[in-house]
Amino acid sequence: MSKNLVIVESPAKARTIEGYLGKDFVVKSSYGHVRDLPKDDMAIDIQNGFRPIYEVTPDKRQVISELKKLVKESDVIWLATDDDREGEAISWHLKEALGLKDDTKRIVFHEITKKAIQNAIESPRLIDIDLVNAQQARRVLDRLVGFELSPVLWKKIKSGSSMALSAGRVQSVAVRLIVEREREIDGHNTKSSYKVTAQFIVDNGKILNSELPKNFSTLDEARAFLDKCREAIFTIRNLETKPAKKSPAPPFTTSTLQQEASRKLSFSVLQTMTLAQKLYESGKISYMRTDSISLSQEAIDKAKQAITSDFGEKYVHTRQYKTKSESAQEAHEAIRPTDFSVKTAGGDRNEQRLYDLIWKRSIASQMADAQLERTTATIGISTTPEELIAQGEVIKFDGFLKVYLESTDDEDEESKGMLPPLSIGQVLNLDQMKATQKFSRPAPRYTEASLVKKLEEMGIGRPSTYAPTISTIVKRQYVIKEDRPGKERDFKELILKQGQIQEKTGKENYGSEKAKLFPTNMGLVVNDFLVEYFEGIVDYKFTANVEKEFDEIANGKVGWQDMIQNFYGDFHRNVETVQGATLTGSKPGSRDLGIHPESGKKVSARLGKYGAYVQIGEATDEDKPQFANLKKDQLIESISLDEALDLFSLPREVGFFEDKPMVIGIGKYGPYVKHDDKYVSLSKDDDPYTVTAERAVELIQQKRIENISESIGEFEGKLITTGKGRFGPYVKHDEKYISLPKGEFPAGLTLERAIELIQQKRLTESNKYIREFPENPAVKVVNGMYGPYLAIGKRNIKIPKDVEPASLTLEDCLKLAGDTGGDEKPKAKKGTKAPAKSTVAAKKTAVKK
DNA sequence: CAGTGAGCGAGCTTCCGCTTGACTT
Length: 849
Prior knowledge:
Topoisomerase I, domain 2; globular
């Protein structure tokens, strides 16, 4: 009986598969990639065919050493990493790192079913070195681009270790999309037109809504039309009923899951992925990082069963969806429940909500089309050839909509409702007709999820990187995700009622944004720089083009080094040129705004180390130039001279309080009110440029209240006091301090609330220590944020999953401490700095062993 | 705790893609 070791990428997958394979098989996981280029060194021998110098990733050393042990004990090794470019490379790296033979068995499967695994075991192949080379080309290209481009930004735009700038094939395009969308919106020319709608009352008091297919471009035209309708007779000229159908959407991929969870549940892409990961680890859903929309036959059969038992057989319509995406690699199934008969996922509320979404979408994908009937009524007007149109929709058979209709949070599909009974020739009674001014809208700003959608459409990035890419561009402060209030505008409306036309002006709010991505000044500057000097890299088609070349490598038609050489020549020359050149034109991120009307000095907006600012005068002037920061949200490229000069109105006196002046300013720690030599920070919602004296007084008084400690009552015979200390506002009772939760202040704190907080704190305290030992008070079993751990003196030791923390004895604890005890190696100090790196990393070829 | 931005230059930073568990009041 031979012993088998199967290596997959994910531990959850390993657990499942082990169950399918029986006793002779041990299934372990590599936890993703095990070797990579070192983090802080180019590690590519450019002179020698771009030879990459890999190392076992530090956090994978243990994985590798454990796998090595198992390899020794096994007769047959099966490399079962994902069936895509990265997966093939992981197998190859495993082979190299574990010292396996070239003929090690490589197996692949696209679904985690017993049958699929057994089939795979029956038809092993060898590692596909061409595919591995395509991955190496991808890796080397990304490293070259990232590690040569980023330093150009440090040199030409801003350097500094905190919030370092960076550029890369994926992130820079993501930023570009956001920047260009913002400019599109900025340049949008709002046009208005007048939309005509009419409401009729039919025999039995029911209402018929209709509209004119065309809009009028001016108020006068709209008025002329309504004028004609004043005395008109309205007749049904035509009634047409057509069957229609709606089909369900395919089951989720990573990207569509992120979009839907964003729209329906308002989750961020990171939140969605974290929840999905939990569902995956607890065995509730299939793998969540996938670009495939197909389901295993087994899953389809199970879905069919579930639909039949829940809704009946006529609701079943199984389908196999095929991806339209060229970049899809389809190593996994679409995202689906592992068991369709399970409707609850356990875990917290949001896990359940996400699971519900996945369940519904997967089930719906295997359900019948909805059958509809659309009725169109054409309404003639006796005084003009124009016609009004009324449309209604009736669901004849709900099909998959049954699953969606159950959901309360589905609002994207507004149903049109039914038309009242009508007949041709019927004369209608006009209740009122309106011509309402409508404004054209610019393209919408990106949300995280719509950005992911766009990137996916362009074939940029992978399911595993969508969420991290967004984190990167936010962390670099190229973009910011936030809400912004809208503006108000007037709109005109003409109303025809009882033969009279009335003109009305209404107000509407427009342009308010929620959780949208906006470019920052830094994002604009870095993007413009890259577009100007490295257009080839931030070109939207760059990834698509290199992907084609990677495919050729994978097909064995092109050598990977040749491909990289071909790319690198021009790219590197360009890097050198831009590095060395004094940039033509003005410094990136600088813009002249005009002349200061009083002093005649030049006014300019620039990007500095601390952000964007406006400067009056030149550094070379006799007297020093004056500076002022731009407000949050103000962009260098769009600030006007007036807005810029307005920034110099700080610090300003807003008024007096208790005979002393209050001064508003902006300091190192943000906007403040200074009064009686004491500073009070403004709140986030206060604009220092417009804040009033009343508000300033309020802030000063609020601060006083917070700082004064006062007793608010007694509890268990001891005083409860509130106050503000080093760590913020607190409640104190029995010599113990409790920090107030965010948003709560001592000022409004009731005795009841204070007692609640004290009891809450006791509860968590009592839950915290799972076990204590009177014999040895230094040893405790503690419930920590990341699970139970053992605290012995100053050391903390994680308690293994298979140990029940509540039943540990003191001896167990000491043993646990002894097992994992002490031999922590001090990290080898990073070598004293190597001689200055030449521009290329040729030197690093010196063997690393 | 309540000012800084240029320039002089050393020394710091960085990519994309695959995975989860390490941080502990």
